[in-house]
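> call design_seq(struct)
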């Protein structure tokens, strides 16, 4: 589940910085620049578990705790698909972004994956080989897709045993894969 606010004239706007803050309850908050002319940011939250959390309340508390100011001009959210979303091609339609490659929960990559899939789709169309798109996407994302879904399922078990285990397992996994800098 996700919830996102687009905030104009935001005091936190930095055109060169994207932030991802991992929360203790197997969720994360993202802050990234959107429109430099409006000093606009996207501030969102995502959780990957079936819970009854009020994501809007969590974002509002986060904004208050971090003195984030600005005018909300757009709100969105909902369910975000994780991992590959077959079919990747149907008739003359190539599915990119959330509709094709979904998000990668371990690193919070949604937009990055969307850009890669769009680039691959564009190259396939430009070279008049749209049928190659699914094969290239599977080659690019299948290994991480299997890893992500396995990790996701293991963490649901950990979360039932003790929610603190989830974050510990997540930190170990991140160090093992080198996803941090």
């Amino acid at each position: 589940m996700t919830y996102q606010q687009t905030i104009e004239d935001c005091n936190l706007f930095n055109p060169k910085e994207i932030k991802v803050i991992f929360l203790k309850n197997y969720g994360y908050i993202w802050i990234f620049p959107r429109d430099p002319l409006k000093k606009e940011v996207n501030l969102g939250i995502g959780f990957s578990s079936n819970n009854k959390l009020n994501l809007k309340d969590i974002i509002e508390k986060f904004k208050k705790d971090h003195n984030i100011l600005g005018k909300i001009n757009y709100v969105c959210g909902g369910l975000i698909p994780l991992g590959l979303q077959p079919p990747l091609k149907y008739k003359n339609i190539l599915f990119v972004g959330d509709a094709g490659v979904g998000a990668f929960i371990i690193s919070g990559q949604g937009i990055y994956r969307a850009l890669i899939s769009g680039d691959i789709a564009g190259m396939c169309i430009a070279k008049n080989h749209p049928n190659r798109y699914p094969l290239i996407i599977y080659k690019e994302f299948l290994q991480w897709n299997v890893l992500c879904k396995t990790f996701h399922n293991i963490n649901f078990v950990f979360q039932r045993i003790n929610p603190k285990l989830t974050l510990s397992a997540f930190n170990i996994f991140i160090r093992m894969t080198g996803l941090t800098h």
